[in-house]
């Protein structure tokens, strides 16, 4: 039986009234990019909000602008309008210091025609200068405005009184079901507990088609796309269910779209620097990362730098070549990229490589199935017996060197953790062990124990046993 849905509340308003600041305040983290420049937010961003025990999903949206619907601002407004479909409530934010504008009045007219209940927030209401703006907000015809300063946290608690009559019953129903599910989870044995949604981040250079790919997977225009490079600024997480066409099994995925990562020397604007930093944080929170390449551009040095960053963070990495439907000399391109990856990322040879098309859907199911397999390897723990057998075989096949005629002794190995898999090898004279032998051990672990394309960490630790003999 599926759980009741948490109530969903959408923040709406013209640019630069403080929507993202309010969003960050409600989720208790700086998830949305905030800047004095208007129009920073372009895609819908969701977060878990709570006010005085009232739990709900909060949705940050792009600033509403009166532009042609084919323009970038116009397409952003269409995304905002779409976010109201299925929402339980809307928070309409106006700037109390600036007072009402014709655009505020236009948005109010639109909201009065919708069926979604609206709570008006007069933001930036700190100080006497905002009092007139708060009073003006009554003229919107959407009820009593709440005087709030999202930046300073003033008046945010008053939102409880505005939202509770609208979403309180649904929030209580969700919380009761959620508590029951958590209790059931705690009673399970650790190995029987579900692993949760696959956290899958899509990264790559600008215009590789990341947002288009996610829209194709979701079957809707959930993310803003277009010919302009760098449309995506925030890292956007979307919870989604995918049905494996082979097994028929439905599996949960948290898709994370990220801003395009250009060469560092080309990243000059403050906002783009914030976007790239946000994309790097998204990699930290992911389990599996898809590096999306553009088939019309091939593999570039910047792609290898992004791949190295992902591997350094210990994430499981796979490569997808997008726009395969327009690729020229496809077989040669695929083999060339495979060879370049193996050469440029020698620390992890054989990364999963998929040819996909966000436009036609080609290869996407295979890519997702591969992502789940990769997460399984990334989370794998090797049994003690199997680990010791591998260790003995590796030592026998290629014994450690003996610098100065005195052998380096590797005594035993243990797996210290997973995600990524981490191993500790104990022995003596380890400071003299050549890096080439460490690479041999890592490559052997990867090849013999089922960690083919996963970053593996091996730490050498001196034997502390005072009775151990060299």
Automatic annotation (TrEMBL):
Matches recorded under Pfam families: KH_dom-like, MMR_HSR1
Residues annotated as domain EngA-type G: 7-171, 198-379
BP terms from Gene Ontology: ribosome biogenesis
Coiled-coil stretches: none
Residues that coordinate or bind GTP 2: 204-211, 257-261, 322-325
Keywords: GTP-binding, Nucleotide-binding, Repeat, Ribosome biogenesis
Binding site for GTP 1: 13-20, 60-64, 123-126
Function as written in the Swiss-Prot or TrEMBL entry: GTPase that plays an essential role in the late steps of ribosome biogenesis.
Family: Belongs to the TRAFAC class TrmE-Era-EngA-EngB-Septin-like GTPase superfamily. EngA (Der) GTPase family.
Name under which the protein is recorded: GTPase Der
Taxonomic path: Bacteria, Pseudomonadati, Pseudomonadota, Alphaproteobacteria, Sphingomonadales
